[in-house]
Amino acid sequence: MPFQQIFDVENLLALVTFSLGWAIYSFAVDGTALSSHGLSRRMNSQREIWMWTMLKRDLRMIDTAIMTGLQQGTGFFASACIFAIGGCFALIGAADHIASVVTDLPLEGNFDRALLETKLLGLVTIFIFAFFKFGWAYRLFNYCTILIGAVPMAREAEADQDAAERAVRRAIRMNQIAARHFNSGLRAIFFGMAYLGWFLGPKVLMLTTTIVILILARRQFFSEANDCLAPDTEELR
C-alpha cells in the first residue's frame, strides 16, 4: 500500500514530532554544553574517580563486583528487548483482530490493519535499536573488565606511573563509552513507552512524547540524584 494511503497528515505530524523530540533531547543531553549539568555527565566524572581510586587498591574484588553488576543490568535489559520484539511480532499476526477490537472503542483516528501493522513495525524497530545498544554496551563493559585487569597493582604503578596512568585512562574511557550506549538503550525504551500512545491516536502520541521528554529532562537535570552529584561549590539539598 502506498505510503500516503497509510499516513494522513495528522499521523505524519505526530510521527515527526516523536522522532524530532527524541533526536533533539538526545542531542541536548549528549552533545551540547547543557550536558555538563546533567546526571549522565556527572556520573562520568564519578566513574573517573572510581578508576583512579582503584589504582591505589591492592585488592580489587570490589571493582570486579561493580563491573559484574553493570554487566548483569545491561544483560537484563537486552533480554527484555528480545521478549518485547517477539511480543510485537505476535501482535502483528493478530493485527486484524486488534484493529476490530480497537475500532469498537471510543477513540479517535484510523485503525485499519495497514496502519496498525506499520505502528507495530515501528515499535519493533525501537526495541531492535535498544537491543543493539544494550548488546554493544554489554560487550564494552566486558572489555572494560579486561582493561581493569590490565591496570598495574599499586606497587607496580609506583615503578612506572606513566604506564599506569595510561592504563587507567583507557579503562575510564571504555567505561564511559559503555555507559553512553547503555543510556541510549534505556532512553529508547522510555521513548518506546511514549510511542505506545500512537496506538490511541496521533494526538496522544504527541502528548505522551512531551510527557516523556519532560520526565527525562527533570530526572537528568533537576532530580535529587543530580543534585547529590553537584560540585562542592554548589549547595546540596
TrEMBL record:
Report if keyword Membrane is assigned.
yes
**Swiss-Prot/TrEMBL keywords:** Membrane, Transmembrane, Transmembrane helix
Pfam families, sorted? DUF599 (PF04654)
Q: Which residues cross the membrane?
A: 12-29, 76-99, 120-138, 195-217
Question: Where on the tree of life does the source sit, at the highest rank?
Answer: Bacteria
Protein name in the entry: Membrane protein
